[in-house]
Structure formats: C-alpha cells, structure tokens
Description:
Elements: H1 18-34, H2 43-62, H3 69-87, H4 93-107, H5 114-131, H6 138-158, H7 167-191, E1 214-216, H8 219-223, E2 229-235, E3 246-252, E4 254-255, E5 259-261, E6 267-268, E7 276-279, E8 283-289, E9 299-300, E10 316-319, E11 324-326, E12 334-340, E13 343-346, H9 367-378, H10 387-400, E14 404-405, H11 420-428, E15 430-431, H12 433-446, E16 451-458, E17 469-472, E18 476-484, E19 488-492, H13 494-498, H14 500-504, H15 515-523, H16 525-547, H17 551-560, H18 568-595, H19 599-613, H20 624-635, H21 640-654, H22 664-678
Parallel strand pairs: 14-15
Antiparallel strand pairs: 1-5, 2-8, 2-17, 3-9, 3-16, 4-5, 6-10, 7-13, 8-12, 10-11, 16-18, 18-19
Amino acid sequence: xxxxxxxxxxxxxxxxxxxxxxxxxxxxxxxxxxxxxxxxxxxxxxxxxxxxxxxxxxxxxxxxxxxxxxxxxxxxxxxxxxxxxxxxxxxxxxxxxxxxxxxxxxxxxxxxxxxxxxxxxxxxxxxxxxxxxxxxxxxxxxxxxxxxxxxxxxxxxxxxxxxxxxxxxxxxxxxxxxxxxxxxxxxxxxxxxxxxxxxxxxxxxxxxxxxxxxxxxxxxxxxxxxxxxxxxxxxxxxxxxxxxxxxxxxxxxxxxxxxxxxxxxxxxxxxxxxxxxxxxxxxxxxxxxxxxxxxxxxxxxxxxxxxxxxxxxxxxxxxxxxxxxxxxxxxxxxxxxxxxxxxxxxxxxxxxxxxxxxxxxxxxxxxxxxxxxxxxxxxxxxxxxxxxxxxxxxxxxxxxxxxxxxxxxxxxxxxxxxxxxxxxxxxxxxxxxxxxxxxxxxxxxxxxxxxxxxxxxxxxxxxxxxxxxxxxxxxxxxxxxxxxxxxxxxxxxxxxxxxxxxxxxxxxxxxxxxxxxxxxxxxxxxxxxxxxxxxxxxxxxxxxxxxxxxxxxxxxxxxxxxxxxxxxxxxxxxxxxxxxxxxxxxxxxxxxxxxxxxxxxxxxxxxxxxxxxxxxxxxxxxxxxxxxxxxxxxxxxxxxxxxxxxxxxxxxxxxxxxxxxxxxxxxxxxxxxxxxxxx
Length: 679
C-alpha cells in the first residue's frame, strides 16, 4: 500500500461534507491533547503520530477507504518493538504513555462506526489525565480544559446523527454540560481525602535549585542568572528588614582545595540553650518551597525547637550546624509554617568539639593566600586578637582593597582548578558572593579561626505580590560563619563589604534576559515587570488554592462547618452526604427529563395527527419530505400548497446548519392549508 500524504485541495470549511468536517475536528482535538506530551515522548513516537494523523486527514478530505486491519497490526507491532527498544519495558509510566499515544493515533484509522469514535473519545479523556502525571501547572490545566471541551464537542456531534449541526452549536452544548458538572467536580476536589504521596505524584518541570550539597568557585554565579522562583513566603504580622532576610541552606565545612562540601551529618536531638540563643522579635511566616530534590530546607534564620517548623507529610529535624532537613527530598511543592528569630547567636560557647573540620586546609593549595594570612596574623595588632577583630580586618580589606562584585568574573585557577583563591584574593579581585565567602573562610582558617561557608538565599523581591514575598534563584547567596569562644558561631557576609546594596536593598545583579524579554524590557521596563508580577500572582493563587490544598485545610473546613474535632470519619460522612444529595437531585432531574419530548418529535406527531384527519396515512419514521409525497399522492394538486410547506420543513430539518424549528408564521400557514383541505 502506498502512503500518500499529499492533501487534496482544500474546499473550504463550510463546503466540507459533515463526516469529513467532524473527522478533521476530532483530529485537531487529538493533536491538541497530544501536543504537551511531545516534551517527554520518544522522537519516533512523535513522528509516527504526526504521520498517522496527517494520513487520516488526507483520507477524510479525499473520502478514501480506510486501511485494512493488517496495516494497523503491523504498525502496532513496530510501535511496541520501538517502545521496548527505548524504554526497555512495556510497563510503567513512560512506556504506558508512549503506547497509549500510538494506540490513539492508530485508532483514528478505524473510525468506521460510532463505536470506534467512542473508543477514541475514551482514549482522549485518558490521555488528558496522563498529562497531570508530568505537570500540574496552571498552563497545563488550561490546555487540558480546552482538550476536554473539544472532546466533549466531538462526543456531542457523534450523538447528533442527522442534519448538519454547526460546530458552534455542538460546542455550546458541550460547554453547558461541562458547566453543569463543574460544581460536583469542585465538591469532590474539596472533600475527597488527600492521599500522600499519590496526590503529589508528579514533579512539575525539572526541580531546580541554587542550593546543593557542594560549592565551587562560580557555581552560585551560574544560578544567579536564573530568574525562576525558589520560594514564596508570607508573614503573619511584622516583617523583618531586607538585610535580615537570610535563608539558611546547606552549611559547607569540608574543603579539598577545589570544592566545598557538607561535613559529616551529626543530627541534633534538641537545640540546647548553649546551641542557640535568640534575641529580639519573632517573625511567624508561611513558606511555599518549589521542588528542589534536596533534603535541606532553606528556612529564614533562625528557627528554634520552641516553635518547630511544620510541613504536612514530612518529618523535619535539624543538625548541630542548624540545617533544617526533611526525611526525604523535596520533589513537590511544600508548604511550611515556621517562626524565625533574625537576632541570634548559635553554637557552643566554651569549646568546639569538631573544630578540626572547620580548620582544615588541604596542603599545597593557595600558598600565597596562606602566606598573606600568616603575615597578617604576625602583626602586633592581630597577634593575640580575637576572631571578631580578625573578621573586621578582613572585611575592611575587602572594602578598601579594590575588590569588585560581578556576575561574570571568569574562571579562576589553573586547568585543574588549583589556587583559585590565590588568584581571586591577590590578583584579579573580582567575583561573586561565593568567591568572597570562600576566600574569607580560607583566610580565617589560615589564622587559626574555625570557619565555614553557608549557602542559601538572601533578600526578596522589593514589592510583595498578594502579600507574598518572592525569593528567586538569583537571590542565591553564600556567606561565612566563624567561631569565637564565649560567643559561638557568628555570621560574616563579605558581600556586604563590597556591595552593601545587595544586602540592604536586596539589589541582586540583573540576570541575562532572553530576546523577547530583552525587547520588552527595552521598550518598557515597567511593563515587563508588571506582566511578570501579574502572572506570578495568578500562578501563586493556583499553587495555594489547588496544588497545595491539603488535609489540614480539609479539616479546617470541617471546623468552620461546626465540627469540633474533625477526623477522617467526619470527612467521609460529609462526602457521603454530598454524594447522596447530588444523586437524589440527579434522579429527580432524570425523571423530569424523561417526561420531556424533543420539540421535533412533538412537531412531527402533531403533523401526523393533522394529516391523519385529512385521510393521509403516514408512519412514525417518515421525514417531512415523505409526508409531502404522501399528501401529493392522496390529495393531488389540491395538496400542493401543504406539501410545499412540508418540503420547506424538510430543508429546515436537514439542510446545512439546520435543525432549526419553524417559526410561528410557518405554523399559521400550515394550519390554514390543512383547514382549507378539510373544507
């Protein structure tokens, strides 16, 4: 069989036969439904699906014969083999969706009867469901609403076998049916128990974060070009100043000369009085974290055990270095309720049990920086100085030593990445936050002071959207901590010395814009910012009201309804009552609907009664044209006027864009002609 994909000449949408028009509409709906799957389908599956849909379109336009079953069997066998080749299995999500897409495409080559069309509709609705296995974003939901509307429209057309109903007519009926079912869907969404982890099965997009368990020179600068959202937070009351917005992530203490890593995890069962001391006001807030695939939670510094952070479905704990962690990686959006103290001191006061981890410097790396630190330490002013004095000296050196803050400092060190800190600290003096933090820690260690790098986020967008402060990946930051006896671990942020506006005003360096964003920003910077804020506000509402709807909110709803101590039993009982009430209402509506008569059926019955009184015998299945022929055969020329009216009715019933009921003038003319014949 020769596969001809050359499309016949397009006759115009209005001039297409109904079968061709309905088939093309269904193929368009299928293509729209399958389109989001192209990002994760194998290339051969996308190509095969496109070829089959174009082939089916060609057959519809040419009114050609559909291929035989053996062609479909061969193509399905090939698709199954290719699926095994790419996925190494025929089971599981990826292989299952691939085969489902192929089955949907091949089934369009079997559209010979209404039964085949109903199978296609079922597969289409199932494919809509599979989209949410990959993404639950607002855009995905909007696209699938359009797909459902299209499938419902095609289903309505399949139940309108006569005449030439317009697509707008079928689409309106489908939209009304969907709107009638929407309240029930909302009730089921609100009351159906949240199942964890099944409810949050998909992980939207690729989980990205500026944080990781390691850091190299330049790694944070790469993330700073990412303008995507890392987290949102909303304060319940007072808001801390921008310079206090430090979100603590992984603490990095192990250094091999090239890369900073986390030290051995030592879980802390409780925050002892000598481990964390808080001062000043407490700031209660609610945070929504985007997926990061990390176990470290970048909470606002500093959370305590007095009001521990809470996240539904996760167990949260902390380590001695006050990294708050979850019991599993964050593959879904997570809502956390916590309290922060931005004024605090932390760590043991008398002795540091693991000081060796925070003093270690690999031999043979950065010799010039180590020599510079030794020379500074030997100066009389610093020979016996405490750690805070040495830290202030380093920060003053950064302020006055010609250092610059930049997102593009270039590559430091030799080809193997050695001696990068030597080159930054003593030669080029241009870098991003990780360059300053890492160099600060190395110099402090060289002077005998335990020190470590802390990564996380600093600052938020200047203006909150809908009460939510947004922290973006470009707010990724690195700072330093050093230990001093009788005071514990103290924060030192060298970036504040070279670029104070970055900390005080959250003025992070602007990331590189794409072509379209750059053009919009050139024409109107405020327009681009406003469009982004509006979209993020809408997206945040979707995340908070839909994706983050949880069991806690379900129980809060029951409390608002008067249930004192809500439980699963109360939720199940309320859901059962709602379903019983909806079912009863549906039964009443079905009983009433059965008593309704289609207007055409009622009109046809009235016409047959009138013609029966005139002695014209008719059958229930006969169309108006057949009734006209019966009138002419029984009454001859005297019945021509009445027969002409019946022919006019037939055109109303079956003409393109028809199924319009006759107007009152037609009914009056028909009654007058029938009365004349009776006389």
